[in-house]
Amino acid sequence: MDRINFYFQFLNSEFAGFPMLVRITVIVITLVAIIYISSVIRLFYLRNKIDKYSRQLYNIRNKYGLAIKDIICNPLNLDKAKIGGIMNITENDNKMNWQKNIFTDLVLGLKEQLSSECLNKDNYLNLIEILRLEEYWEKEISKGSVNRKIEGIRKLNELTDNVITGVVAPYLYHRNDGLQKIARNVYLKFEKVDAFKFLLDKKSESDFNRLDEIKLHSSFKKKAEDNELPLLTEWIENSENINFKLFLIREIAYFHQNESTPYLADLLERSTNSLLKTEITKTLNVLNYDEVSSNLSSQLKQYNKSLQYK
Amino acid sequence: MDSVVFFYQYLVYFYAISLISINLFLAVLGYINIRKKKVKYTESEESLFTDNAESAPGISIVTPAFNEEVIVVENVKSMLNLDYPTFELLVINDGSKDRTLDLLIEHFELSEVPLEYSYKVRCQTVKRIFKSTNPEFHRLTVIDKVNGGTKADAMNAGVNYIKYDYFINTDVDCILSPDTLKKVILPVLDSKVPVIAVGATMRMVNGCEVEDGVITRVKPPTRFVPTFQETEYLRSYLVTKMGWSSLNAIPNVSGGFGLFKSRLVIDVGGFDPLSHAEDMDITTRMVAHMRQKGEKYKIDQIADTCCWTEGPSNLEVLRRQRTRWGRGLMQIFVVHRKLLFNRHYGRLGMLVLPYSFFFEFLAPIIEASGLIFLIYLLITQQVNFTTFWLMLLFVYFIGLTISMITLTLDLSVKKQYKNFTEYLRLALFSSLEAFLYHPFVVFFSITGYVQFFTRKTFKWGAMTREGYARPIKSTKV
Q1: B409 CB near a chain A CB, below 8 Å?
Q2: Which of A16, A102, B209, B238 is deepest in the core (most CB within 10 A)?
Q3: Does the CB of A211 have a partner CB in chain B at under 8 Å?
Q4: Chain A: closest CA distance from residue B457 (Å)
Q5: Which residues of chain B have a CB within 8 Å of the CB of A153?
Q6: In what helix (H) or strand (E) does residue B33 lie, and over which residues does it extend?
């Protein structure tokens, strides 16, 4: 100990004798050396992490890949017991978390691959129940970090057509914008009772961008498939965001909400915004609203080119 | 004389400290930015475009071709197979003297269509326009024009004909990743502030295995010069540009690959055919235009590798490339000198251009003068060798560390190379870069600066193409 102390004191006195710039340089080199060594360690750590995941995926794919494919593609509806038999697991099997991560990726990959060919939805849903994947991700959402929650909500959204909205409900007003947005999106898609309560939320409106449009459009499509898409006119009137209004008007055209035509015709009369008028005209045209052309011809000269030449 | 020596030494020392601090700061910002984007943009967001094709915004791809018979068919095939629902591909045949146009017509069953063309930005005369008679290639348009001498002129010919709000500017030797369009449009859509340009990471295709215009195996280059460039490019994209992107202060979106807002490019008069750094020039003009209009804007950068380009395979081709870049950089500061330190141009005038001036433009000059100064000190026996080796270690270690940080960032984005030894090879090359590669870059850059003032006429340097699969006879212009 004394010897170490001695050498420390010796180096310290040598160091103190150097000019200031040399001392600064030595300190900087030391710091940079630490960063360099940390980077090298991190490089190897990342390599190991990636290779470990690839190995695990390879092993699980080898062991269960064909079985999963058979189950998903089977034209016959298989019950959980049979699926468990094919996979050689029971519903009570508590697979380690890393396996559930891998199974999720494997199942989603195969689902995407086979969705256009032979996907048996009932078998698929029974399979993810046997593997307890939904349960796993619901736990990750409730306990994980913000990034893990976002990942969990994404995975649940991809895994199933029937997410329990109570899982995402706690995050509908979360201060993290990314988490809040994805939670609201999933809530809107799967909630049965009051799915659209966020459409007029001030924050949602002010943050609304083109990507949100596409996500919302995707959610509307799901709602329309389940015959749960209401008339969108309700939100046009109360919204203050012009881009949001324009989006809703385009959606009315896409979903052929013919019942909206009287409202849109009235809005066309009342509105002074040329962008809005342009979009309404296009939508009324798609909905084959005959009266629009007579209305327009009287107003055409007043408006700028974007309306005139559309 | 002593005071001059004293002053110069301290000046260089603090210059190095500043450069190091900025680079480390950018590395931290780059790391945070990469992590943020990895959480925000995943395959889930990308799949929105394929599942909701009716909502996916259209993107135009403009790619000039001059005497590119070696690779044009492969390249076009690769681009037509991009995984995105709504896009168009415009190939500009820039007066090729070889079989570029003939090969395109043959392979893609092209036939001439009526010449309905308007010159929104200036370019050489467009002679003919071709579209395919085969529905499989309905996205392809070939514009045949009189050669304008530069890539910028060819790009303008494409810009005049594009139909979508955003277009990609890329080179004909570039191979784009199949998911490129999905990745590069996400930051545009996910922003309330208008995004005027988006850049992405580019890598060397030189060592990769390519089949029918698709990369089947990513490998670092085998030859020395492109291997050094691989790390150099990655440093530029993953550290510098990802870092600057956090501050909305990207100096330029690469001419090899970049997404631009069509209307804005037209409003600023298109690409400058007289510029030797048309990428930095157009970025600067677009930002200046937005500042003059008093409108908010954003230039973003994604960390994903979207584009593989053929890099210079030997010193002669590297010399042509770097002297052109040197002329281009000098030209930027001459043409846009009124923007420098002009607070009316916000970040562009007070941060981006000053940084580019002091730490990119002046860097080769300071390094070269440092070498001359060192020789003088050696001759006059004024060198304290202990301090000399310490300072050399200092500068060398910084470069090495930034390169190592770059490789970890690259691996965290995606494992591109199959074998880990390929990453270690890049790490080894980065340790030799300061001695075997960087001196040439410094020399060629300074040559470019001198050429800007001394040469009357410049020709766009010819890129010697070798193709992807194996070296074949190069078509030298």
Answers
A1: no
A2: B238
A3: yes
A4: 45
A5: none
A6: helix B2-40
Please report, for residues B185, B186, B360, the alpha-carbon distance to residue B195 in angstroms, rounded to integers and kept in the order given: 10, 10, 25
State yes or no: ipTM above 0.95: no
- The helix (H) or strand (E) run that includes residue A121 is helix A121-130
Contacts of B407 in chain A (CB under 8 A): 39, 43
Using one digit for the tens of pLDDT, what is the confidence trace for B160-200?
Answer: 999 999 999 998 889 999 999 999 999 999 998 999 999 99
CB-based contact B401 A178, cutoff 8 Å = no
* CB proximity A158 to B under 8 Å: yes
What is each CA distance from B324 to B149, B186, B403, in whole angstroms? 14, 33, 25
Per-residue pLDDT band at A1 (split at 50, 70, 90): confident
With CA atoms as reference, report the closest residue to A72 among A147, A8, A7, A130.
Answer: A130
pLDDT band, very low/low/confident/very high, at A310 (cuts 50, 70, 90): very low
Chain B residue with minimum CA distance to A48: B420
Q: Is the Cβ of A31 closer than 8 Å to some Cβ of chain B? A: no
For the beta sheet containing B59-65, the strands, ordered from the edge strand earlier in sequence to the opposite edge, are B110-113, B126-132, B140-145, B87-94, B59-65, B166-170, B257-261, B195-204, B298-309, B175-176
Distance CA B243, CA B252 (A): 13
Min Cα–Cα distance to chain B from A239, Å: 17
Mean pLDDT score of chain B: 91
Q: Which residues of B touch A35 (CB under 8 A)?
A: 24, 401, 405
Chosen from A57, A113, A214, A243 to mutate, greatest number of chain B CBs within 10 A: A214
How would residue A133 be classed by pLDDT, with cut points 50, 70 and 90?
very high
- Helix%, strand%, coil% for chain A, nearest 5: 75, 0, 25
- Reply yes or no on whether the pLDDT at A231 is more than 50: yes
Residue B89 host element (H or E): strand B87-94
- Alpha-carbon distances of A119 from A70, A116, B92, rounded to whole Å: 10, 7, 44
Give the model confidence (pLDDT) of A63-96 as tens digits.
999 999 999 998 889 888 888 888 888 666 666 7
How many angstroms away from the CA of A244 is the closest CA of chain B?
A: 12
Question: Does pLDDT of A301 surpass 60?
Answer: no
CA geometry: angle at A304 spanning A302 and A309, to 5°? Answer: 110
Burial class (CB in 10 A: 0-12, 13-18, 19+), A160: middle
Query: Could you say which DSSP state residue A88 is in?
Result: T
Yes or no: say if A207 and A177 are a contact pair by the CB < 8 Å rule.
yes
- Do A147 and A179 meet the contact criterion of CB atoms below 8 Å apart? no
Closest CA to B175 of B60, B53, B306, B22: B306
Yes or no: say if B167 and B151 are a contact pair by the CB < 8 Å rule: no
Tokens for A299, please give them: 């107003």
Task: Tell me the mean pLDDT in the region B389-417.
Answer: 93
Cβ atoms of B326 and B447 closer than 8 Å: yes
| Token pair listed for B138 | 């309905």
Q: Is B447 part of the contact surface with chain A (CB cutoff 8 Å)?
A: no
d(CA B214, CA B231): 22
Query: Phi first, then psi: what are they for A221, rounded to 5°?
Result: -60, -45
Nearest beta carbon to residue B39 from set A21, A178, A211: A178
B45 at A interface, C-beta within 8 A: yes
